[in-house]
Amino acid sequence: MKKLIISVFTIALFASCGNKKENNKVEEQTATKAVEEAPKAKKVLFVLTSHAELGDTGVKTGFWVEEFATPYYILKDKGVEITLASPKGGQPPIDPKSELADFQTASTKRFNADKETQAILSKTLKLDAVNQADYDAIFYPGGHGPLWDLAESKTSIALIEAFYTNNKPVAAVCHAPAVFKNTKNTDGTSLVSDKKVTGFTNTEEAAVQLTDVVPFLVEDMLKENGGVYSKGEDWSPYAVEDGLLITGQNPASAELVAEMLLKRLQ
Do 72 and 198 share a structural domain? Predict the structure, then answer.
């Protein structure tokens, strides 16, 4: 009787161990499957200007903080992975005027207190070191700087064309639609030809007294390239989307552009 009890106990023990191993195996397989099925975080490349001078005026320029910070935090807070790049790499120039008290917003104040993001910004990748295959979309913050460097950058032009031909969104706000000055479709036509677009208006440029300083006017260029240009009231939020192209009119439009881009990525 004692031997029988021991035998039964032993069988039960081995059965229990076997069940535990089987359960562990099932749990591991379930966990692995869950990881594999979990949606991968979307990746967006932000491209900032490296140009710091307003023509030959001696006045400093660069990128406009609000146009960087607002989309950056909207996307980041939704789990989007953001990589920063610029033509020269390193710290891109910030337009000093965008740091004035009159132009502060919730996003710029957050940026001013965000040492981590400031450190990341100081180490942007060189633009020629990035590959569109690594990202799901590309975004250009404005400021006057892009009128001089990114509008003419062969690297930036090729990158935008690569994103577009690979069915990935291309977004730009305020002066940043200047990057479409020389971009082409595969048939040689302008990338913005027959596309709904917007950008910094001629009247807004006149208001900041830089019409005769900038190398070209964003509104005029987009129209000359065949874009179906539209605009809202000066300094009011206004953005348009046409297929893969998303453009915003001015700093106040950065939030709209970011929301449109986020929706495209979801």
Answer: yes
The domain in which residue 191 lies consists of: 43-265
Reduce the DSSP state of residue 13 to 3 states and report it.
helix
Its pTM stands at: 0.87
CB count within 10 Å of CB 60 equals 15
Q: Is 152 exposed, middle or buried (0-12, 13-18, 19+ CB in 10 A)?
A: middle
* Domain co-membership, 28 together with 54: no
- DSSP secondary structure of 79-145: T-EEEEEESS-BPPPBPGGGGSGGG--HHHHHHHT-HHHHHHHTTBEEGGG--GGG-SEEEE--SSG
Distance between CA atoms of 62 and 92, rounded to whole angstroms? Answer: 7
Both 178 and 221 in one domain: the answer is yes
Whether pLDDT at 103 is above 80: yes
